[in-house]
Each structure stands twice: as C-alpha cells, then as structure tokens.
Amino acid sequence: MCGRFTLTTPLDVLATRFGFQPGLLEHVPRYNVAPTQEVLTVLNDGGENKAGYLRWGLVPFWAKDVKIGSTMINARAETLTGKPAFREALQKRRCLVLADGFYEWKKEAAVRIPLRITLKDAEPFAFAGLWASWKSPAGERINSCSIVTTRANGLLEPIHNRMPVVLSPEAERMWLDRSIESPEVLGELLTPFPAGSMEAYEVSSMVNKVDNDEPTCLLPVGQDT
C-alpha cells in the first residue's frame, strides 16, 4: 500500500518535469504527506497538463459522507474494473500524484521500522492516480483521489507485499491521455517499477506521527544533519 509520501522538489522543477504551467499555484516542501491532506496532482484538460490539489482519499460522487475517503486512499490495480468507485474513474478520471519518495514500514518481530523509498537518481516521479468529484448535501464540492497500488517489486518484497504504481514518463503520457479508455491497455501500465532503479533507507520513527512534517523526516538513521 501507500500511506505516506514526500514531495520536496521545487515547483519550477516539477513544472518542467511534468509539463504544466505553475501560474499562481502555491507549493511548499512536504516531508510526511498523509491521507486526507491535499496532494499535488496533474490532470490533462483539453490536451494540456494542469496541476492542482486533490484531497487524498477518494470520495465517490455517490457517497453519503466524506468520511469514506479515509478508507479509499489506495486502489488495487488488479480489481479496479470490479469496484464501482474506481471503474469509471479508470476510464474517465485519471491523474498523476506527484512525489519524490514514499514511506513503508518493515516488520521485525514486534517493531515496525520506517523506510523511505526513492528513485536512485533522486528525481521526482508520479504515482498513478484516480480522482472523483463529490458534492455534499450542503453544496460543498470536494475533489479527491486515490493512489493505485500493485504487487511489490524485488526491492519492496522484503518490506511489504504491495507498492504504489510509479509510472515511467511514457506511461505518464498514456495514463493522462483521455482518448485511451481500454481497461486492458491501461492495466498494462500498472506494473511494479523496476527494482534496480529504486533504493530504500531507514528513517527516524518520527515519521510515524502525522504532525511531524519537517526535513529531518528524510534523514537516514544515524545522520543528524
């Protein structure tokens, strides 16, 4: 699964990498992004990539309560077409969720050890995301998203049996291409990212607490500065 991640890359670098105009968009470094918070995403609108924020935890349009979003932070790639909350989104409402690392916890006896997983080249990347728009009985509009997960690659297998779908640049373009609606074609993009291009290192248990969102969250254990 994916329950926490980071996005510390400057906005101008993200704009160049993901092909959007930053405009007046605000962005601050995030060291411990958690469910129900706003996450930076990219959608294709009229043939152009546009960035904006979505609430992490998908709230389907038919939901009676926004609280359902806290249970829908992830969407399993293998069952997307069988879930009403994700089936239409797979065809019509796909997005990129921007990140430059994510956290996973490795169980050793009764201890859970947090690790940060990044690309070896330290570049930002995108998770495959699905989004939805929900309107509350009071008229409040909430746009939200889920991160698609798949089976773990060789690096993640000893840590957890699932991992978020990290898309290659070519897969990003296809994922955002609204002319593609075939579940079979889209499903071929939802595979584990090559383990050889990723690395993992242990970080402080301070990332266990959502309120801890600071640079020290990124430091390898044993490194003070």
Walk me through what this model shows.
It is globular and about 45 Å long. The model has no long low-confidence stretch (mean pLDDT 95). A hairpin with a 2-residue loop joins strand 3 (38-45) and strand 4 (48-56). With 225 residues, it is mainly beta. It has helices at 11-18, 84-92, 169-176, 183-187; strands at residues 5-7, 30-33, 38-45, 48-56, 74-76, 94-99, 101-108, 111-119, 125-135, 141-151, 162-164, 166-167, 198-202. Helix content is 13%, strand content 36%. Strands 2-1-7-8-13 form a five-stranded antiparallel β-sheet, with no helix packed on it. It has a five-stranded mixed barrel with strand order 3-4-10-9-6.
Structural key phrases:
225 residues, mainly beta, five-stranded antiparallel sheet, five-stranded mixed barrel, 13 strands, 13% helix, 36% strand
Lateral arrangement of strands in the main beta sheet: 2-1-7-8-13
Query: How many β-strands, per DSSP?
Result: 13
Q: Kindly state the percentage of residues in helix.
A: 10-25%
Distance linking N and C termini: 30 Å
Structural class: mainly beta
| Rg, nearest Å | 17 Å
Spans of 5+ residues with little confidence (pLDDT < 50)? none
Give the number of helices: 4
Overall geometric form: globular
The arrangement of helices and strands along the chain is: EHEEEEHEEEEEEEHHE
- Measured by DSSP, the beta-strand proportion falls in 35-45%
| Biggest sheet record | 5 strands, antiparallel
Average pLDDT rating: 95
